[in-house]
Amino acid sequence: MRINSVDAVRGLTVAAMLLVNDAGDWSHIYPWLEHAPWHGCTPADFIFPVFMLIVGMSLQLALGRQLDAGAAPGPMARAVLLRGARIVLLGVALNAISLLTMGGHGFRLLGVLQRIGICFALAGMMAIYLRGARTQWTALGAILLGYWALLAGGGGVEPNLNLADRIDTAVLGALSYQWDAATGLAHEPEGIVSTLPSLGTVILGMRAGDWLRKGRIGALAAGGATAMLIGAAWSLALPLNKQLWTSSFVLWTGGFGMLAVALAYQLIDVRGWPPLGRSMGVNAITAYAGSWLAACALAASGAMGPLYEHAFRAPLAPLFGQEFASMAFAAAFTAVFWIAMAYAYKRGWRISI
Asked: What digits encode the pLDDT tens for the residues 234-292?
């Protein structure tokens, strides 16, 4: 049996992703819809880590039930690895399509879906073969403290000087999100080394999922508040930074996600509120990939500019400002996929990657 609140929070998170990723005019964006340029944490910076937390919770809920029912670990492990690989390949394919249709910077090897797929596979193996709570908490602590030590001993946390950027420059080079051919420097926000603390976010989600599965909502809320407090205190020594996915950022955003799920559980699963966002949540990857393809199609056809100009900027900007017009386009774009996923949910369609 699925927990409605988890699907709802996942769906609202995907909707927020689309809202942030599909501005009508990238030169005019409200500050709360933009990511922090480096250190700091804006509302937009919570979206991806909360989704990763939900990945861990979903793994724990699904695999825990199967293992308790006596399922064999081997076939489960193969299924987890294959799904992780499919998510990674989908991310690579979407980046290739973006390059072919929209141009811009060169091909990007890593990205959001690739990070999800890699962490899904690694955390899934842990959920199957390293089920003990103490083992998983120890792994989380080792990852967070180890990553802090790596950053501290590898040049600090400044752009281009930090260990993550230097490894991405050496290994990914021109395949990174940002690549300066003149200096040979690269930056990949979903890079190689920073995937390690992202795995930490998923492990935190697994422990949160175990509390949720056992009905320990008080522990889930208390754990979320504690994680945020530790993350805030840790940020005094190790700044909150989404692009490096610092250890303090893991706890700050992960704790927020735990509190959000605890609240959603009380409202939806206990009090019976409508599970707003559930239709997006059960087809989350489909909604994300579909929005990516739609943006590529609009750009490649040449329809994006005229559509934004005549339907949003011209009528809205003089009255409400350029930022409002840009956000209105993103909201309308998101609404299209919200309606499409609601229709798919009503028809019982679920597309699993």
From this structure: 999 999 999 999 999 999 999 999 999 999 999 999 999 999 999 999 999 999 999 99
Cα–Cα distance between 106 and 99 in angstroms, integer? 7
Mean pLDDT of 117-135: 96
Which stretches within the chain are classed as H helix? 4-21, 47-68, 73-102, 112-129, 133-153, 163-171, 195-213, 217-234, 247-264, 278-282, 284-301, 304-308, 314-320, 322-346
Main-chain dihedrals φ then ψ at residue 187, nearest 5 degrees:
-145, 130
**Three-point CA angle 245, 201, 249, nearest 5°:** 35
Q: Write the DSSP assignment of 276-332 as a string of letters.
A: TTHHHHHTHHHHHHHHHHHHHHHHHHT-HHHHHIIIIIHHHHHHH-HHHHHHHHHHH
- What CA–CA distance (Å, rounded) separates 284 from 299? 23
Quick check: 177 and 190 in contact, CB under 8 A? yes
Which DSSP string do the residues of 154-178 spell out, in sequence order? Answer: TT-SSTTTSHHHHHHHHHTGGGSSE
**pLDDT of 1 above 60:** no
Residues 91 and 103: their CA atoms lie apart, in Å, by: 17
**Dist. CA 339–CA 261, nearest whole Å:** 23
Model confidence pTM above 0.85 = yes
238, containing H or E segment: none
- Cα angle value 282/10/255 (rounded, 5°): 155
pLDDT (tens digit, 9 = 90+) per residue, 67-95?
888 889 999 999 999 999 999 999 999 99
Q: What is the mean pLDDT of the chain?
A: 95
Q: 94 Cβ partners below 8 Å, 6+ apart?
A: 111, 113, 289, 292, 293
